[in-house]
Design a protein that fits this description.
The protein has 242 residues and is α/β, with parallel strands linked by helices. Helices cover 31% and strands 21% of the residues. It has helices spanning 21-29, 44-48, 75-97, 116-123, 137-145, 165-174, 187-196; strands at 6-10, 32-38, 58-64, 102-106, 129-132, 156-160, 177-181, 203-207, 215-218, 231-235. Keywords: Cobalamin biosynthesis, Methyltransferase, S-adenosyl-L-methionine, Transferase.
């Protein structure tokens, strides 16, 4: 029997019309579609492709067993997620070994801080895996801000707000241009780090880039409540130009 292929398909930051032609073709033609989501939610990736799937599609939602309930430094966090990814891998592998292709829907780009990477590392030695790149969330964010993120020789740093505050402050101070992801409840810490780096007046917060609820504000105007999941902080580079 011919073995199937797993397609990790990047959907872009949120608007369906920002999807590539290849991604659109694979999504519309897929018999088996898998996607990650928080338990009890529809899932952002699934929402992006609403109305695009064929009538006889078989969906495989992969519900995260944990998100913020256990801190990632706790050994139980990795143990729980490792078991989860093993279960997802086994199911997808059983489909492709039966000759079926599987499209895994990925927000943004599959190889940029995405959950698909954990499937890829477990599947790549056992079945064909193809990856379709997508526009990243950070690209959607700096486009929404209306200004280029880098010029000339600017160095761009992509940091997670989950970093320790001192490390976050150091990286913000040393870079020319900045993208910060995974903000959520870490917004107050990020504010302090940006202020300590002396760059508070340069920072912007973009929420829901390339989505209907898109909002762009200077960070100094943002309240101290937890930021939405789809939030990205930016500091634009001001480097060399003609």
């Amino acid at each position: 029997m011919t073995i199937g292929t797993i397609h990790g398909v990047g959907l872009g930051p949120g608007a369906a019309d920002l999807m590539s032609v290849r991604a659109d073709r694979l999504v519309r033609g897929a018999r088996h579609v898998a996607y990650f989501r928080k338990s009890g939610r529809r899932g952002h990736a699934r929402t992006i492709v609403d109305g695009m799937l064929r009538d006889d599609v078989v969906e495989y939602p992969m519900d995260y067993p944990v998100t913020t309930e256990i801190v990632f430094t706790d050994p139980r966090y990795n143990e729980c997620l490792a078991a989860f990814y093993a279960t997802c891998t086994a199911h997808i592998l059983s489909l492709v070994q039966g000759g079926e292709d599987v499209v895994v829907l990925c927000e943004g780009d599959p190889f940029f801080y995405g959950s698909f990477m954990h499937l890829h590392s477990r599947l790549k030695d056992h079945a064909p895996v193809a990856v379709v790149p997508g526009i990243t969330g950070m690209s959607g964010a700096w486009t929404a801000s209306g200004a280029p993120i880098t010029w000339g020789d600017d160095v761009l740093t992509v940091a997670m707000a989950t970093l320790p505050e001192a490390e976050l402050t150091r990286r913000i101070a040393e870079t020319d241009a900045l993208v910060v992801m995974k903000i959520g409840r870490h917004l107050p810490k990020l504010r302090r780090a940006i202020a300590a780096a002396g760059r508070e007046g340069q920072a912007w917060l973009v929420e829901h880039a390339a989505q209907a609820a898109e909002r762009v504000r200077p960070l100094v105007e943002v309240e101290d409540a937890p930021a939405p999941y789809f939030s990205i902080a930016l500091i634009h580079g001001q480097g060399r130009r003609p």
